[in-house]
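Lab notebook, bench 4. Still working through the backlog of constructs that have no structural model yet. Next entry is a single chain of 225 residues. Request: give me the structure tokens for it.
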Amino acid sequence: MSRSLDRRHRLLGPTGLVGVVCLLLQACSQAPRAPALSSAGPEPDLASQTAPTPQPWVDATPGPSHPTSTARTPGEYRLHAARHVYDQHAAQLFSGPLPPLLQAVGVLNLEIGARGEVRSLNWLRAPTHAPEVMRQIEHLVHRAAPYPAPLHLQSVTYTDTWLWHHSGRFQLHTLSEGQLGDTAVSKAEGSKRRASTSPAPTRSSVQSAKCKPASLNPGQGSAYC
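Model written out:
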């Protein structure tokens, strides 16, 4: 036993001991380190968090680009609304007097709210023979919204007549340029009224028109018949 130990000591010697110590130091340096503790705390669970629901924004007063109307009666507002419709649909307006025959004539009753929104749309005289025209007019009415906000009225209800041409263009009766043939008819009716009110010529007036002066000398008759 002692012989084997002496042999090992002789084999190792000082150099062998140094090598063993180096191996032990290397093993200690490669040992796993404990994870560093973070002071920031646990990460939030983004999946469990929900975004807040945005609240709808409502503007109670018309902005600078919102049209307004200072009308105090439905009649005044009808004029402002007609001009607004013309501005919104300028490309579909019929220019000049309309022909005597139109595709459709519709009378529409509109209720406009305080902010210019269309509250209701009712046909007082619907062109039922042309349902496609009815749909186009209703589309134009809604597309023109918002209408001028009535500053002096909570809401306003007015009536206007749509004059629809076969070409798909229109005029409103409030701003209509009239129809062809109206001037000739009015002239004929005026001439008839003037003829009926003028007095018929009497017999004496006819005779006096035929009388001629007899002589220019004083004291003689002035005329003869």
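Notes after review: The first helix runs from residue 2 to 29. The helical segments are 2-29, 74-88, 131-143, 182-197, 203-210. Flag for follow-up if needed.
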